[in-house]
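anyone seen this seq b4? input:
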Amino acid sequence: MRRFPRGRRTAIAATVLTLALAVTTGAQATAAPDDRAPAAEAVRQYEVGDVATADARTALARTGTAIDEVRSSSVVITADEAHAERLADLGYELTALTTPTERGGPITAAAPGDYHTYGEALAAVAEAEAAYPDLVSSQVIGQSHEGRDIVAVKVSANVAVDEDEPEVLFTHNQHAREHLTVEMALYTLGELTSQYGTDPEITALLDSREVWLIPSVNPDGKVYDQESGSFRSWRKNRQPNAGSSSTGTDLNRNWAYEWGCCGGSSGSPGSETYRGAAPESGPETTVVADFVRGRAVGGEQQITAHIDFHTYGELVLWPYGFTYADTAAGLTADDAAAFEALGTAMADSNGYTPQQSSDLYITDGTINDWLWADQGIFSFTFEMYPTSSGGGGFYPPGDVIDRETGRNREAVLTLLSYADCAYRAAGLEGEYCAA
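predicted toks r here
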């Protein structure tokens, strides 16, 4: 491993080039993080030392850096050579990390073929709809920038009828390279359908709930990251940015609540956390937001609970992300207690770490904050397997997919069980839950 000294910029280009060439020979080969960089330049992960607090992590994020992983006194980021040099110039100490391919050992690097492609995921949805017509229906709710369908899948007993039941939304793949989340959507769909009528808990839940799955919020980014033959470590969507040669908006900084308010996103189009030109400027964000707004019937939002699946870190997160405060406008002490109790209950079932989002670092314009503050939906983020880059980072090997999607079975059912009134998780049913 090569360490980039604080405040120095010596031999960085040669070191990164050598490491990049090593990466491109393995299954996790990656391309440049935005279109300004030469096609041959690779991105890779670095450990950034002496970043031990939420304030320090937020300061790093405010440089336009996307933080992949939080460690006890450091973080892991993905960067190209130019961004690594900029951080070194700012005084950060970077250590280039080896990939599973480079270091060998028991973790086998993933290949793009380990995961369903966008087309294969849609085919799996169609198969489920054909096999379980009384339980599953799907609809195209809009298109991505490049014209790909964004599909919402409904799972419920008596699926053809819009019943007056609590609705739960699961979203996946806002960030292009997080392919394990699409596998999570397909696992949930498969488990709910195959176990209905057999598993008493699932049967009771689907008799009294309506479940919505959006397997890929960012299909253009998924296709770009996965279907060239090697992974590109692409995060954003594929929308061009006016006046810039850089491509893409970070969809999870593009939501219309406290957008760009607090240094939790970047205004630079080349940044991994670029928030877009305006709230909901990403067409994919607008498609999902319009779908959610459309679930308000008679002025009452039918969706009561939500999980946005990401990788990686094994975390359960809840609002707010834009402030360190436990309570803020629209988030009372009782609301915070319900978030913490329900988030902890889900984490108890899957072994993840539960915490408020801003305990990591400040983010703004996120789906969780918008869904709660604007729509009153108890919204969580799950950062899935692994805990660290050592387990494969954004690209864990295919042989862990079944284990790591199934690991969230009980957490998903827990959220469904509390969808009628999340405050029950905190013992507040007397104040908030109808008899």
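The chain has two domains: 3-109, 115-432. The two ends are 61 Å apart (CA to CA). kinda curious what u guys think
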